[in-house]
Design brief:
Oligomer: single chain
Number of domains: 2
Number of helices: 15
CATH topology of the largest domain: Rossmann fold
Helix content: 40-55%
CATH superfamily of the largest domain: P-loop containing nucleotide triphosphate hydrolases
CATH class of the largest domain: Alpha Beta
Radius of gyration: 22 Å
Structural class: alpha/beta
Order of helices and strands: HHHEEEHEHEHEEEHEEEHHHHEHEHHEHE
Strand content: 15-25%
Shape: elongated
Length: 361
């Protein structure tokens, strides 16, 4: 067992990134070839919101509760402000995809709903926020309540974080930049952050909270932990460590709902990383090739390996995106680009041409 003293020394001397690298070798390794020994991948079994895959049972319950909250918000006529949802998740976890799945879920039920997304890192002036306000107001005038995904909410312009200019919108449905004034704006707003949560201020705050954070880190690598405990620790971390950032506490206080998506490597009760790797791999394949019904085990192995090794969907999805498979019902290892075939060829041979059936969600 890794002692708390060792973890403490690693944090202080090497930093958080090196800590997780050191702990990585202590975690139980997964036999990826063994995961390919199945005949069926049933995506229907683990689809929670639309086509969003989730093998964390406790998180799945929370995602369904968000769906109910959106439904209740939509049906209320007296509300004059947005429903504010914060999504905290590692890079490449599918935050915008999740927000869009809520829209896909409701658009068949409601005709007066819309979806769009904004990445604030491209904004150079605070005045550009008016674009978002105009979109919401224009939809409201047509009796449409939009779902809006706003990414990189911690973008700073001229020394000020953008989120500090959205507090009135979140609390009262109002926005006034001195030129344009908007009121009574109704929308479902999904917010996601970026660099602020990895900033120096965040790391320094973590060091100052070592006694509180270490037991959580230690438990997460040594034995199964409760998702609810981990989730609460992440929210407390945001509030405690980043509370010194101007207006950040006010920003967090305005959220109605927090969605906290764990990284792949954490070890929770009621969770199967093996199922998650298989399901996510199959879902990424269907995202780009919707007609696929079977996948070669060798192909699946590569996608699972990229998910497990990089702990993000991005590299795995890039490999699927580069696959050459025009309108076929089976996706093969030989469909990969030559660079991937050369890299994984020796690992693919034991699988031969064996395939797995995908049951679509």
């Amino acid at each position: 067992m890794i002692g708390i003293e060792l973890i403490s020394d690693l944090i202080i001397k090497e930093g958080l990134v090196d800590l997780f690298k050191a702990l990585e070798g202590k975690r139980k390794k997964i036999n990826l070839p063994e995961l390919c020994n199945t005949k069926i991948i049933d995506l229907k079994a683990h689809s929670v919101i639309g086509r969003y895959i989730c093998n964390y049972s406790d998180l799945a319950i929370e995602l369904i509760s968000v769906e109910k909250a959106i439904n209740n918000y939509k049906n209320r006529k007296d509300i004059k402000r947005p429903l504010n949802v914060f999504i905290s998740a590692p890079p490449g976890s599918g935050k915008s995809y999740l927000a869009r799945q809520y829209y896909e879920r409701f658009k068949t039920k409601w005709h007066d709903i819309d979806y769009t997304d904004y990445n604030l890192s491209s904004y150079e002036k605070i005045g550009a926020l008016s674009k978002i306000m105009r979109y919401i107001k224009n939809k409201n005038t047509k009796h449409i309540i939009p779902i809006v995904f706003i990414d990189e909410i911690d973008t700073a312009i001229q020394g000020n974080y953008i989120f500090s200019h959205l507090l009135s919108l979140m609390a009262d449905g109002k926005y006034d930049n001195g030129v344009n004034k908007y009121e009574h704006m109704k929308a479902i707003l999904f917010f996601a952050g970026g660099s602020l949560f990895d900033s120096k201020s965040g790391r320094d705050g973590l060091y100052q909270n070592i006694k509180r954070i270490i037991p959580i880190i230690n438990k997460s690598f040594q034995k199964k932990i409760e998702y609810s405990d981990w989730r609460d620790s992440q929210i407390d971390y945001l509030k405690d460590v980043l509370g010194s950032v101007p207006k950040f506490s006010d920003f967090l206080d305005r959220f109605d709902i927090f969605i906290v998506i764990p990284p792949l490597e954490l070890n929770f009760d009621n969770y199967s990383l093996k199922d998650e790797l298989r399901d996510l791999s199959a879902a990424l394949i269907l995202k780009h090739f919707k007609d696929i019904e079977h996948v070669e085990k060798a192909y699946l192995f590569v996608i699972m390996h990229l998910l497990y090794y990089f702990k993000s969907k991005r590299k795995a999805e890039s490999a699927v995106f580069l696959t050459n498979n025009p309108k076929k019902k089976i996706i093969k290892f030989s469909d990969f680009p030559e660079t991937i075939i050369r890299k994984y060829n020796k690992y693919s041979k034991p699988f031969g041409n064996e395939t797995i059936k995908i049951i679509k969600n």
